[in-house]
């Protein structure tokens, strides 16, 4: 690896696992983070920011004759041709595709019949398959070329609420509804510290060297480089969603309000409380995503609110979901949204600033999390987590299914790291580390 970032954790955050040199021989070496753009917590680009922006090449954009996202090419979402990957929750398309499984996410052929080699063995999953190598079903947690699970980190007792890998640290942070915050050594995969929060964690993210933890009526902020720890007040209700955009920190709560802090250059007071955005969501704020000049928030009230980042005004409300909005994702010209109603909707922004649905993918079960990254050939792929414990991996913009990940419980948290790392957390508290790369870590 040739990263030259000024960090003490460098390139060896491999969780103590020796990688097989040829396990990803069928994909070309991964170009790190291209073509992502990143936003710093304050201003200007930061190579390691979690607020990733995808910009599709012309070859990946739908043409006027391509019906993948509708009959015509929608206008760019936000300013320019790229949108922040903070819009990390589902998208939907009008037409169904044979690549989307009709068998509750367990894999399908064009005729709808399940392919055993794309289905995990339920007996192996439970630890008691007697067929061994003779079993026609998968004995693996993943079927996607070039992707491998490199570590399984156990210790949490309930569902993961957030996973964070801050800049300037060789430690991975995880928070759970079991009321604990755990810190893991990225070299050994061992838990080096566990904190009893005395409260249920609702969200956890990292931005630069800062880690933000959502708690009842507060956000806790910790800087891994300076060891500075802050308790940010001004919150009403449990914090379930956190994001950073346009020099501000946003926290969405169970009351439906969104608390906002200004990020400053003052060392003694890096966060100054600004305001609380009230009276818009009528229920818990579940997710955020940022697209250039806009902040998008999803809620249990079945709506997506669109906020102007310059004025902090709610400019519109998107109301097409019939149940809780669980996740948001921005890619190229589109906003993807997922919901417990079993749909992934794809929204396009017109020249007048209004949004319309250009596709809806209907699943047979609820959708819980979305995230996106580039594969080894620098092609955009999207991960969609379903109720039954599977995560389908799709090409964008075609929505062709390329593979699956599996878990014994619903995966509610998906976080992208660098160097091809992906972190998943399920409802049982299990944290898994995956790697999609063609070279050894």
TrEMBL record:
Residues 1-20, 55-113 are annotated as: Disordered. Residues 120-142 form the C3H1-type domain. InterPro entries: WD40/YVTN_repeat-like_dom_sf, WD40_PAC1, WD40_repeat_CS, WD40_repeat_dom_sf, WD40_rpt, WDR86-like, Znf_CCCH, Znf_CCCH_sf. A zinc finger (C3H1-type) spans 120-142. Residues 79-88, 95-113 have a biased composition (Polar residues). Residues 1-11 have a biased composition (Basic residues). This is C3H1-type domain-containing protein. It comes from Thlaspi arvense. Pfam families: WD40, zf_CCCH_4. Keywords: Metal-binding, Repeat, WD repeat, Zinc, Zinc-finger. WD repeats lie at residues 153-194, 278-317, 318-347. SMART domains: WD40, ZnF_C3H1. One of its GO terms (molecular function) is zinc ion binding.
């Amino acid at each position: 690896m040739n990263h030259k970032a000024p960090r003490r954790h460098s390139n060896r955050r491999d969780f103590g696992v020796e990688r097989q040199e040829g396990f990803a021989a069928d994909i070309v070496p991964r170009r790190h983070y291209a073509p992502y753009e990143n936003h710093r917590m304050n201003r200007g680009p930061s190579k390691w920011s979690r607020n990733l922006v995808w910009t599709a090449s012309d070859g990946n954009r739908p043409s006027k004759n391509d019906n993948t996202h509708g009959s015509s090419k929608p206008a760019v979402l936000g300013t320019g041709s790229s949108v922040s990957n903070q819009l990390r929750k589902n998208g939907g398309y009008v037409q169904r595709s044979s690549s989307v499984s009709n068998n509750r996410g367990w894999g399908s052929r064009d005729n709808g019949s399940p392919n055993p080699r794309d289905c995990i063995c339920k007996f192996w999953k439970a630890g008691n398959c007697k067929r061994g190598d003779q079993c026609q079903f998968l004995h693996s947690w993943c079927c996607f070329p070039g992707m491998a699970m490199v570590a399984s980190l156990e210790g949490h007792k309930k569902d993961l609420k957030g996973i964070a890998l801050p800049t300037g640290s060789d430690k991975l942070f995880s928070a759970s509804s079991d009321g604990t915050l755990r810190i893991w050594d990225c070299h050994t995969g061992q838990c080096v510290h566990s904190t009893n929060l005395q409260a249920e964690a609702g969200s956890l993210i990292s931005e630069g060297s800062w880690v933000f933890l959502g708690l009842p009526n507060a956000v806790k902020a910790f800087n891994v480089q300076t060891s500075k720890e802050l308790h940010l007040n001004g919150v009403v209700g449990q914090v379930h969603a956190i994001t950073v955009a346009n020099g501000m920190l946003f926290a969405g709560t169970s009351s439906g309000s969104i608390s906002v802090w200004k990020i400053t250059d003052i060392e003694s007071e890096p966060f100054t409380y600004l305001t609380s955005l009230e009276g818009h969501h009528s229920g818990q704020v579940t997710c955020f995503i940022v697209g250039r000049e806009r902040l998008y928030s999803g809620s249990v009230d079945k709506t997506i609110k669109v906020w102007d980042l310059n004025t902090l005004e709610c400019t519109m409300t998107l109301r097409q979901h019939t149940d809780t909005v669980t996740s948001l994702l921005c890619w190229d010209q589109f906003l993807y949204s997922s919901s417990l109603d079993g749909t992934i909707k794809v929204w396009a922004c017109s020249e007048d600033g209004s949004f319309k649905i250009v596709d809806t993918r209907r699943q047979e079960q609820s959708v819980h999390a979305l995230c996106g990254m580039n594969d080894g050939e620098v092609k955009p792929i999207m991960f969609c987590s379903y109720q039954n414990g599977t995560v389908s991996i799709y090409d964008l913009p075609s929505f062709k299914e390329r593979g699956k990940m599996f878990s014994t419980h619903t995966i509610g948290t998906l976080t992208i790291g660098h160097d091809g790392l992906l972190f998943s957390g399920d409802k049982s508290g299990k944290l898994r580390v995956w790697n999609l790369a063609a070279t050894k870590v």
